[in-house]
Design brief:
two-stranded antiparallel ribbon, alpha+beta, Alpha-Beta Plaits, globular
Length: 99
Amino acid sequence: MANIQYYDVILKPVVSEKSMEAMTMKKYTFLVHTEATKTQIKEAVEKLFEGTKVKSVNTMNLDGKTRRRGATFGKTAKTKKAIVQLTEDSKEIEIFAGL
């Protein structure tokens, strides 16, 4: 397993209708490094976003989709998605504030 630093764990936020609705319940969705564990994701969120306290982390591994170009088949890269639940007394994450 690779040595992953906390700033390498979270790749980008997921912006979709479902993830935006979950933000009302303090659930935030991120694409994360494929080898990151739940504890690493929790530490990364708490260090990157000051004042946040993570209650729980749910992860899901997403296989790459099959793509076709002519007669050749290939696959897109595998990804990992994390849904982070914050505690009630935690601060909101600011990157989602203007959305």
